[in-house]
Write a structure and sequence with these properties.
heterodimer, A: alpha/beta, Rossmann fold, nine-stranded mixed sheet, five-stranded parallel sheet, B: mainly alpha, 15 helices, globular
């Protein structure tokens, strides 16, 4: 009996150690996005993108097995985000993080990620100075506000639309965007004929539209948070007849975002926006991306910027894990590998800045048009390698 | 609302004995706090989450002073929580990083605001009270959201530094310090509140809740008590807010959103109002459920929360604690009486 037991034990031990040698190391990835409430579209797109990517490129990059741990940040809520980051880092022991989304959440997470040396991807926060400045282990695959808010100014002036009226939503990102646009407009020798800050909740646009009309601008530049406000203002300007009388409507990609453009409807046609990604982007990789994403998510779920940012975060993760093939996972090496790394994204080429992990990418000027009956953003001009500063 | 402490008539003792009976610690109370402290030693326990539960419990208890003991419904209790949170945040940002003194300061500011609110609403009752408190909450929320230069707006207050507690215990990412700090502060404030509600002042509050007119005919003024009750409740809510800021080093507008006022009301109602422990029980149930459901189903968890709330409220109409208590009483009574 005793010998039998010891043989059994020995055999078990042998199997265990053999397995140990062969076993793949599991890398746990925390996915912290908004899955509920008004901002749940971001979380949904992130999930679809990750799923599509893993179907296409396998689930074991560099011989590592991936395990995803999803949590709901519920929107811009730093208290919740900080607790969730703490939880996935200390209890679930995640080694990588995709998220959290939104600037306040990213800021709240940074000290924990720095202390625990966990690399993270900023896939949904655009404020400047929140990447390498806050955590040496973070990498941005989204965009930085100046990338979106500056290029339209020189473009407009070049088209001869020199008198510009600026309308932004009255909150921190709105103020930041306004600042960058006005700066760029001055540099391009355009004229600011007026600016407005509109409230975030239940704005009544008719009074504002009268003020735009009185200023007689060539074009109006708009920055609104995605959703009700971005839809509302474009429709209001259209309904007022200003657009028909020749006023150019411009803005950041939010006002013609693929997720909401159908709600804007005919009012969106002809609107000029600056954006980092359009499903109409002309490249082989993008066509492939759109096809496989749509196969997973369905036609109804259109592809937005959260999807592309998550996709690129996965691309970078796979590249960095491949580089660690056969070794034990090392978070510091992972983050260091990404610095200065260049990839081809569905949106075009992107580079991760060497010094602070922020993103350098092309910015496209697009015009909203109907393509086969569907509203799309058509890229009409490219600003190459736009800096995040 | 007759679910509260045993009515004085039921106790055939002198006044002094009555208060002595109330003050005596019951065995389950000691067990409750010991179990809460024991959570720390459970392996794999998420201590940050537990400290959050404790803080929410303290916050709900502060509302209990108003709602449970004085019968004042408030839809704006997050005002005091948020005030405490932001005051503690400002202290940490502008160099006053010592947490305990900052906590007292935050309590004092919240108390002052509470006293003013009490003065404002002491002649208002019922639905009017709900509207005034709700209005105050919305005003303060909008103010904080819009004063981006002062509060950082949406992004929250940046650069909060909190020194180690007693210069020894640093707030770490594992929540060890946060847990003990929150527990000890909450326990001390709980004892203070317990003494208070079991004192003649507490009895006067209950009296005013049950029948203010009669209290006046008895010669007990009730109006002044409203502002006093508001002040005390606000101070404790402020302490809870300050605890949250200090344990997380973060403060942002959601700390004083209307949602928070509603959540704390839900927590108190789940647990049972007028019992001091109702808030803590409610917080344990609500926060742990929220955490559990949101981790197993990040997308649809609000549905389950809603469903559970409906179930809890329809089966435990007076809240968990009073319902369980009533069940227990019935069980004890049935034996000697044995009606059927």
């Amino acid at each position: 009996m005793k010998t039998a037991l010891s043989i059994l034990t020995a055999a078990t031990l042998a199997t265990v150690s053999a397995q140990g040698a062969l076993a793949q190391e599991t890398v746990k990835i925390g996915v912290l996005q908004s899955y509920s409430g008004m901002t749940s579209l971001g979380g949904q797109q992130t999930d679809f993108a990750i799923k599509t990517f893993m179907q296409k490129y396998g689930e074991t990059p560099g011989g590592f097995k991936l395990q995803l741990i999803r949590r709901d940040t519920t929107g811009p809520n730093p208290e919740v985000a900080k607790r969730l980051v703490g939880e996935v880092v200390t209890r679930e022991k995640v080694q990588l993080l995709i998220g959290p989304d939104f600037t306040p959440n990213t800021l709240a997470a940074a000290p924990i990620l720095t202390e625990a040396k966990v690399p993270s991807f900023v896939t949904g926060a655009a404020t400047t100075g929140i990447v390498g400045e806050k955590s040496p282990y973070s990498t941005r695959t989204f965009f930085a506000t100046p990338q979106l808010c500056k290029p339209l100014a020189p473009y407009a002036v070049k088209q001869g639309w020199t008198k510009i009226f600026v309308v932004v939503a009255d909150f921190a990102p709105g103020h930041e965007c306004e600042k960058f646009f006005v700066e760029a407009l001055k540099e391009a020798n355009g004229t600011l004929v007026g600016n407005l800050r509109t409230p975030l909740s239940n704005p009544e646009y008719s009074g504002y539209i009268q003020r735009i009309r009185d200023a007689k601008p060539d074009g109006v530049f708009i920055f609104m948070p995605l959703g009700e406000l971005s839809i509302g203002i474009v429709r209001a300007i259209n309904d007022s007849g200003l657009k028909a009388s020749g006023l150019k409507i411009m803005g950041t990609g939010d006002i013609t975002d693929e997720g909401y453009i159908d709600a804007v409807g005919e009012a969106a046609v002809g609107v000029i926006t600056s954006g980092i990604y359009s499903t109409q982007h002309d490249s082989a990789l993008n066509k492939e991306f759109v096809k496989s994403y749509t196969a997973v998510a369905g036609e109804k779920n259109r592809i937005g910027w959260s999807a592309v940012s998550a996709w690129d975060a996965m691309r970078l993760t796979y590249d960095a894990l491949d580089a660690q093939k056969g070794q034990k996972f090392d978070g510091e090496k992972f983050a260091a590998f990404l610095r200065g790394h260049k990839i081809e994204s569905p949106r075009g080429p992107i580079t991760i800045d060497k010094s602070n992990g922020d993103i350098i990418q092309n910015v496209y000027i697009r015009r909203a048009e109907r393509v086969n009956g569907v509203l799309q953003n058509i890229e009409i001009e490219t600003f190459k390698d736009v800096s995040f500063k | 609302m007759s679910v509260m402490e045993p009515a004085p008539a039921a106790v055939s003792q002198s006044g002094h004995d009555y208060f002595a009976t109330l003050a005596r610690w019951k065995i389950w109370e000691i067990l409750f706090w010991a179990a809460l402290a024991g959570c720390y030693f459970v392996p794999e326990m998420d201590r940050m989450l537990m400290s959050r539960v404790i803080i929410w419990g303290l916050f709900a208890m502060s509302l209990d002073i108003l709602l449970g003991y004085r019968g004042i419904p408030s839809l704006g209790h997050a005002v005091f929580f948020g005030t405490g949170a932001y005051v503690a945040g400002f202290c940490g940002k502008y160099g006053w990083s010592e947490p305990i003194s900052a906590l007292f300061f935050a309590m004092a500011v919240a108390a002052a605001l509470g006293w003013l609110t009490g003065k404002l609403v002491q002649r208002v009752a019922g639905v009017g009270l709900l509207m005034v408190t709700l209005g105050l909450n919305l005003i303060l929320f909008d103010f904080v959201l819009r004063s981006t230069d002062l509060t950082g707006g949406d992004d929250g207050l940046q650069g909060i530094v909190i020194a180690p507690v007693l210069n020894m215990f640093r707030f770490d990412i594992y929540g060890r310090t946060a847990f003990w700090y929150a527990l000890v502060v909450s326990f001390i404030l709980f004892i203070a509140t317990r003494i208070l509600v079991n004192s003649p002042f507490g009895l006067a509050l209950i009296g005013a809740r049950e029948n203010p007119r009669r209290m006046i005919t008895l010669g007990a003024p009730v109006e002044g008590d409203v502002s006093r009750a508001f002040m005390i409740a606000a101070a404790i809510a402020g302490a809870a807010g300050a605890l949250l800021t200090q344990t997380t080093q973060t403060v942002a507008p959601p700390t004083l959103s209307f949602q928070r006022s509603a959540d704390v009301l839900v927590i108190l109602i789940i647990g049972g109002a007028g019992r001091l422990y109702g808030g803590f029980i409610g917080a344990i149930v609500f926060i742990l459920l929220q955490d559990y459901l949101s981790s197993i189903s990040p997308v649809y968890w609000y549905f389950w929360i809603g469903l559970l709330l409906v179930v809890i409220v329809s089966f435990f109409r007076k809240g968990l604690l009073p319902s369980l208590d009533a069940l227990l009483q019935r069980f004890i009574k049935r034996k000697p009486d044995a009606p059927s």
